[in-house]
């Protein structure tokens, strides 16, 4: 009887383990091309941990994203083409997808999952566009499109400003591993959107030293030059090896916790490479709607259910991940809007294949659109290419296959009308601040406008600051909507030249205002040059100082926030980086 009881207990435990919902880990890299992996034939790089996900699970040969960051992120999160959810650009509010969209985190959280995101969000900063408002219990990272410093930078944890610990990708990974350990007894969804190999090209010494004097052998066939320079390419590859090391850390943690078998791990990138480096035979890079700008690696491992060594040739994309992962986890949900994505789980599990080989995948950016069918690509000029034999898009088949061109053009025109309709409308969405369900509101320089005399530190606004504030007539303003009336503590992040202390200023919030005075000079140098492996195009950064101004009572509704100087005793008022509002009552 004792033996039978033990067998029954073991059987019950086995069945419970079999029925437990799988954990999900999503790695998303930033500006890593399909060719930046050793498994795809790049002999200059070694990525054994990322490659192992394909060897131990499935490799997708024809997986597609969008040409730039925020549209791809929105499509992963919503299962819908990003232009349909309001994504217009990559900064200044245009990166936000609409609040009536349901996210993958919403779906999994409702199903009882612990949800955490660690890294670069790039889908909105102010709550409820913030990750904590889009279904993630935990967020650690930054919400802008890029960051200016990768070593112990200013980050946020659930809205509160904190200081990072070491190289940011290592830091994001460590925080994710802590979250995994804390939630190992329940199912979890972990989203790791890394911010590398996006510039600035900063990477720890031990990864850079491998490449610093290395002779690179792989070059892109359509562009023999290095574009940004050879050091940029070397740094990108070094950053990819750092990513691979961090993927290995997570996989080891899963083994250590004995939860690897029932954890779905997937890995992909948000767009093509950010320089014309080796990327197979494909035409295009980041920002391009051609094959090289939108083809991404996708590796998926689930030891308990997905057989090793599969190669999936069907056309799939980021829009498919919400319906697929929810299906694999056994989660039924009611979509608020029609999804563009399809459930591709039947391609993986060995069950009867349920897939539409006629489906197409749209790529679009800045008025250009292309359409990818199972075997062909219709480009933005109406040319047609056989993608099985011509990834470089050199042999135009539109005359030989005129019927197919006509069919695809007809489909593309439907998307084109929808996109043009959106872009012809003014983006009337204000920056939402002071939400009743969230303690913190960030109002960065990125989201502001300045009068003529004040300048931005860089043409790329995402991690910039305002400077050259020299006149009483100058101002910095924000269009905002206060969601919840109440009392809020106001804090700014500034630098101030010696001799300019004593500057006084006023911040108006519609009918309310608060005055401030800078009593201490704080003039740190710009930095980042010593850490950069290649010259950057983005703004360098400073160590900005926090200054608490007191509290202000705000009314609900849309209003203009305006910063004006009252007194300028020196050369300029300040350099302004960020305003923080904290709900008091």
UniProtKB/TrEMBL annotation:
Residues 22-331 form the Sulfatase N-terminal domain. Keywords: Calcium, Hydrolase, Metal-binding. This is N-acetylgalactosamine 6-sulfatase (GALNS). It comes from Lentisphaera araneosa HTCC2155. Pfam families: Sulfatase. The keyword Nucleotidyltransferase does not apply. Belongs to the sulfatase family. InterPro entries: Alkaline_phosphatase_core_sf (IPR017850), Sulfatase (IPR050738), Sulfatase_CS (IPR024607), Sulfatase_N (IPR000917). The keyword Metal-binding applies. One of its GO terms (molecular function) is arylsulfatase activity. Coiled coil: none annotated.
């Amino acid at each position: 009887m004792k033996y039978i009881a033990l067998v029954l207990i073991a059987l019950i435990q086995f069945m419970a383990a079999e029925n437990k919902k799988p954990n999900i880990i999503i790695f998303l890299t930033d500006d890593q091309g399909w060719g930046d992996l050793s498994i795809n034939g790049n002999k200059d790089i070694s990525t054994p941990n990322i490659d192992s996900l394909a060897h131990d699970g499935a490799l997708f040969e024809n997986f597609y994203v969008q040409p730039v960051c925020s549209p791809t992120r929105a499509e992963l999160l919503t299962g819908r083409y990003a232009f349909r959810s309001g994504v217009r650009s990559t900064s200044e509010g245009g990166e936000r997808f609409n609040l009536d969209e349901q996210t993958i985190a919403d779906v999994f959280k409702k199903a009882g999952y612990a949800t955490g995101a660690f890294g670069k969000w790039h889908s909105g900063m102010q709550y409820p566009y913030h990750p904590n408002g889009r279904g993630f219990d935990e967020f650690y990272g930054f919400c802008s499109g890029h960051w200016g410093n990768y070593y112990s930078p200013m980050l946020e944890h659930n809205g509160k400003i904190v200081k990072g610990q070491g190289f940011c990708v290592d830091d994001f990974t460590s925080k994710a591993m802590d979250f995994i350990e804390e939630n190992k007894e329940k199912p979890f969804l972990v989203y790791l959107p890394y911010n590398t190999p996006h510039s600035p090209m900063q990477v720890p010494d031990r990864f850079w030293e491998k490449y610093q004097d290395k002779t690179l052998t792989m070059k892109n066939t359509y562009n023999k030059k290095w574009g940004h320079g050879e050091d940029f390419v070397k740094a990108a590859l070094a950053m990819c090896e750092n990513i691979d090391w961090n993927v290995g850390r997570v996989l080891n943690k899963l083994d250590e916790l004995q939860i690897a078998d029932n954890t779905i791990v997937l890995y992909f990138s948000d767009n093509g490479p950010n320089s014309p480096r080796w990327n197979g035979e494909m035409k295009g890079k980041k920002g391009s709607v051609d094959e090289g700008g939108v083809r991404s690696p996708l590796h998926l491992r689930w030891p308990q259910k997905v057989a090793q060594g599969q190669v999936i040739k069907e056309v799939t994309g980021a829009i498919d991940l919400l319906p697929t992962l929810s299906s694999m986890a056994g989660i039924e949900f009611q979509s608020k809007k029609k999804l563009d994505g399809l459930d591709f789980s039947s391609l993986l599990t060995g069950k009867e294949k349920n897939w539409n080989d006629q489906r197409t995948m749209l790529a679009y950016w800045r008025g250009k659109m292309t359409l990818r069918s199972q075997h062909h690509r219709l480009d933005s000029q109406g040319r047609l290419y056989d993608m099985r034999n011509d990834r470089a898009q050199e042999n135009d088949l539109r005359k030989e296959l005129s019927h197919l061109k006509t069919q695809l053009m007809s489909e593309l025109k439907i998307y084109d009308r929808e996109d043009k309709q959106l872009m012809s409308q003014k983006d009337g969405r204000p920056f939402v601040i002071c939400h009743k369900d969230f303690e913190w509101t960030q109002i960065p320089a990125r989201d502001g406008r300045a009068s003529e005399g004040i300048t931005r530190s860089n043409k790329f606004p995402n991690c910039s600051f305002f400077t050259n504030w020299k006149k009483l007539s100058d101002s910095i303003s924000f269009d905002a909507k206060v969601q919840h009336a109440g009392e809020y503590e106001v804090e700014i992040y500034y630098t101030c030249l010696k001799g300019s202390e004593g500057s006084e200023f006023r911040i108006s919030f519609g009918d309310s205002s608060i005055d401030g005075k800078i009593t201490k000079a704080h003039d740190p140098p710009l930095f980042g040059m010593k850490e950069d492996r290649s010259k950057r195009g983005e703004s360098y950064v400073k160590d900005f100082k926090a200054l608490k101004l007191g509290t202000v009572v705000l009314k609900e509704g849309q209003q203009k926030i305006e910063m004006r100087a009252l007194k300028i005793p020196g050369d300029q008022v300040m350099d302004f980086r960020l305003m923080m509002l904290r709900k008091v009552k």
